[in-house]
Design brief:
It is a single chain. This protein is an alpha+beta fold and 303 residues long. The protein contains 12 helices and 10 strands. The chain has helices at residues 5-34, 36-40, 49-59, 68-80, 83-99, 101-115, 127-131, 134-146, 191-194, 197-200, 218-223, 245-259, and strands at residues 150-154, 159-168, 174-180, 185-189, 227-229, 232-237, 263-266, 272-275, 281-284, 296-299. The strands form 5 sheets. A two-stranded antiparallel ribbon has the order 1-4. A two-stranded antiparallel sheet has the order 2-3. The chain has a two-stranded antiparallel ribbon with strand order 5-6. Helix 1 packs across helix 3 (49-59), helix 1 (5-34) packs across helix 4 and helix 5 (83-99) crosses helix 12 (245-259).
Length: 303
């Protein structure tokens, strides 16, 4: 045992996640083995991603089947990875929709039309249907573009970082690159690229989902931003890019497609401050460190 409180806390969190993942594995496996009747009593009726993973693993060929410990590890990843980041992104989306009722109404109309099954009830959407909704996609892309996020990397060897345009030194000399040394940490503010007026236009700082419904500026496409998603650095790029960015997009879209047809979001009048951290979070009051996003929610129809 290492007498270091932060390390002990990490070990405790890891053990808790593993224990809960094992419980979920046993519960889902038992329900799958019991058949359809048992699945009906679960919240997701066996349609959740973990049940699907277990079902496919059970019918896979012996040489392709994952052992129990690997399945439990996959469940832990699905529980932990992107949970806070996607939650932060959705919180920002809800706040922006509440502040822009015209956008909210337009998105709700698209979702109601897509989920109309002809009986007056809201039907379910399959993956392709969710991903092909243009305005839902535009709202998610624009929110991800304007999210304030930071990333840091450790320099592994001496080198230089070229600048997109020269900066001026104190003596007026133009600086075209910044020298970095091994062991140095580089902190990058990704929104400087995502909201660069030279690339996105004079309205780069504005949240405008409609920008994604028209061709993007040619200068943006010619800039060859090295991100893995929509000329953005929200999910980083290269070998350090987020491997779950498509899953994060799907999570955001499914939550919005499920909730927005049934509720109306409105601001409460309280001033919301977003705090910069490893994952940005909203607070009420500039000095608060408590994550919260009060909002007026009105039920429009039953799910």
């Amino acid at each position: 045992m290492v007498p270091f409180a932060p390390l002990q806390r990490i070990i405790q969190i890891s053990d808790t996640i593993h224990e809960r993942s094992t419980e979920i594995y046993n519960e889902k496996k038992k329900a799958l083995e019991a058949g359809d009747e048992a699945l009906k009593h679960q919240v997701s009726e066996g349609k959740d991603i973990i049940s699907v993973l277990l079902r496919e693993n059970m019918v896979a060929a012996e040489e392709d089947r994952l052992p129990t410990d690997e399945v439990v590890a996959q469940i832990s990843i699905l529980m932990l990875v992107a949970m806070d980041t996607t939650t932060s992104s959705l919180a920002r989306t809800f706040e922006l929709l509440a502040a822009h009722p015209d956008v909210q109404d337009k998105l709700r109309e698209e979702l109601l039309h897509a989920r109309d099954d002809g009986s007056g009830k809201l039907g379910d959407l399959i993956y392709d249907e969710v991903m092909e909704l243009p305005y839902l996609d535009a709202v998610c892309r624009e929110t991800l573009r304007t999210l304030r996020s930071l990333t840091r990397s450790e320099v592994i060897k001496d080198g230089t970082l070229p600048l997109s345009k020269p900066a001026r030194g104190l003596d007026g000399t133009p600086i075209h690159a910044i020298p970095v040394t091994k062991g140095m940490w580089v902190l990058a503010d990704l929104i400087s690229s995502n909201c660069n007026e030279e690339l996105w236009g004079e309205d780069a700082d504005e949240w405008k989902p409609e920008r994604w419904l028209s061709p993007l500026p040619r200068v943006l496409e010619d800039a060859h931003i090295p991100g893995v998603y929509s000329h953005l650095l929200t999910f980083a790029g290269g070998s350090r890019a987020c491997i779950g960015f498509k899953f994060a997009q799907l999570e955001m879209k499914v939550v919005l497609a499920t909730l927005l047809p049934t509720i109306k979001l409105e601001p409460t009048g309280k001033t919301i401050h977003w705090k910069s951290a490893a994952i940005a979070f909203p607070t009420v009051g500039e000095d608060s460190r408590r994550p919260e996003l009060p909002m007026k929610v009105t039920l429009l129809r039953s799910p």
